Amino acid sequence: MTRPDETRRGTTRLVMKFGGTSMGDLERIRRAARIVAAEAATGKQVAVVVSAMAGKTNELVAWTDGAGRPGAGVALSDDEYDVVVASGEQVTAGLLALTLRNMGLNARTWMGWQIPILTDDAHGRARIDEVPGEVLGAAMDKGEIAVVPGFQGVSRSGRITTLGRGGSDTSAVAVAAALNCPCDIYTDVDGVYTTDPRIESRARRLEKISYEEMLEMASLGAKVLQTRSVELAMAKQVPLRVLSSFIEPDENGALPVHAGTLICDEEEIVEKRIVSGVTMSRDEARITLLGLSDRVEAPADVFTRLAEANVNVDMIVQSQARSEGAVNLTFTTGRRDAARAADLMRAAQQEIGFEELRVDEDVAKVSVVGVGMRSHAGVAQTMFRALADKGVKFQAISTSEIKISVLIDAAYAELAVRALHAAYGLETV
After folding, report:
1. What are the percentages of helix, strand and coil residues in the chain, rounded to 5?
2. pTM for this entry
3. C-alpha span between 185 and 245 (Å, rounded)
4. Which residues, listed in sequence order, are joined to residue 12 by a DSSP beta bridge?
């Protein structure tokens, strides 16, 4: 089957990425090797990016926590943390390369510092600056299958860095951009669905979805791809395809037709849906400052302090307080950041000027996403009517050109997802 993205870009190179579930044990690594071998047998020049075995990174992080904090006079840094946690991907890369060699294929590993995948020096959350593709491309031209541990890079000073959780997706897209080729993401699902099939059994796999829609869905709770990987793919125009790793080549070594979901330019999607998906995120916390001074610079003071502490804020609602000359300010942030944000606010309570702080982690964010919102009226009306019919109250709203999100009680999250999925007719896409 000819891939339309290959025809458009005129290349036989391909980057394949296998996630942690696909690398979960030796048998799954052997299955991944058979999939790689089947692609290589068609004449493609293949590079493979791998994640650590499922659960391994959590174990490594726990080990670093157990090692303790630096002693007096020693600066706090995550550079040695990166050395430890980057090892999980190195193990799976080496095992996959060994398995491919056992099958008679010419394969070798390429560490992040060997390619190199150059990053800034923000250890634990580094961002990729540059990936020169000449050396890796030359090896592939000679028939070598390149196996690359994801999640890791190297700073300009030569130190190992890691890209943050889910960073192997970003590694794969960066390598594909450097090689000017498509990227196939193999995972434990066979594509991107209209919503989580575990919540709504009538969810449907999407044949195509735009970069912008996927970016919104990834940032709003869809777990298929890391947000930064989609950003990079959109910026570098790398065609992405999400595929299931739970397939097997036939007796002739050929892969079954497995279309998955293509993530591409909006212009490549002929029939644009009004809404493409419904997402849910429980990783939310609502923080409210009651009795905040209504001086004009007070909100700026609050959000400047949060920004300087790298706390990301999403929804913001300001309402009139009961006391004169005061307002109530509510915002949401990730649950992991909630305690830090609350501590920041309490420490600066006198300077900011508010009466009381409340934190609620029993909330969820439910969103609808679709490029068709740009040209269709009534999307919000449909959403709010569907929620009202189920008795679901919302506490905050945020919108963009192609999404609407509401904050609701966590107990109603799955009910809201199913109601919205039905309201937009997504079971028939």
Report:
1. 35, 25, 40
2. 0.84
3. 9
4. none
Element at 309 (helix H, strand E): none
Evaluate whether 193 touches 133 at the Cβ level (below 8 Å). no
Q: Which residue has the tokens 């109530």?
A: 328
Q: How far apart are CA 236 and CA 80, in angstroms?
A: 31
Helix ranges (DSSP H) in 56-133: 56-67, 79-85, 87-102
Strand duo 208-210 + 261-264: pairing: parallel
CA 222 vs. chain centroid, Å, equals 8
Surface-to-core class of residue 6, CB atoms within 10 Å of its CB (0-12 exposed, 13-18 middle, 19+ buried): middle
Helix (H, G, I), strand (E, B) or coil at 172: helix
Pinpoint the alpha helices (H) of 69-111: 79-85, 87-102
pLDDT in tens, the chain (429 residues): 334 444 334 449 999 999 999 999 999 999 999 999 999 999 999 999 999 999 999 999 999 999 988 888 888 788 999 999 999 999 999 999 999 999 999 999 999 999 999 999 999 989 999 999 999 999 999 999 999 999 999 999 999 999 988 899 999 999 999 999 999 999 988 899 999 999 999 999 999 999 999 999 988 877 788 889 999 999 999 999 999 998 888 887 788 777 799 999 988 887 778 899 999 999 899 999 999 998 899 999 999 999 998 898 989 999 988 888 899 999 999 988 899 999 999 999 999 999 999 999 999 999 999 988 888 888 999 999 999 999 999 999 999 889 999 999 999 999 999 999 999 999 987
Burial of 198 (0-12, 13-18, 19+ CB in 10 A): exposed
Which strand (E) or helix (H) includes residue 262?
strand 261-264
Distance (Å, whole) CA 185 – CA 391: 39
Nearest to 91, CA basis, from 104, 113, 115, 109: 109
Q: Residue 147: which residues within 8 A CB-CB, separation 6 or more?
A: 47, 48, 50, 93, 94, 96, 97, 100, 107, 108, 109, 110
- The number of angstroms, rounded, from the C-alpha of 207 to the middle of its chain's C-alpha atoms is 19
Residue of 299, 385, 200 lying closest to 394 (CA atoms):
385
**Per the omega criterion (within 30 degrees of 0), is the bond before 182 cis?**
no
The two structure tokens encoding residue 87: 């090892």
CA distance 291 to 355: 5
Q: Parallel, antiparallel, or unpaired: how do β-strands 128-130 and 13-18 relate?
A: unpaired
Token reading at 13: 């190179």
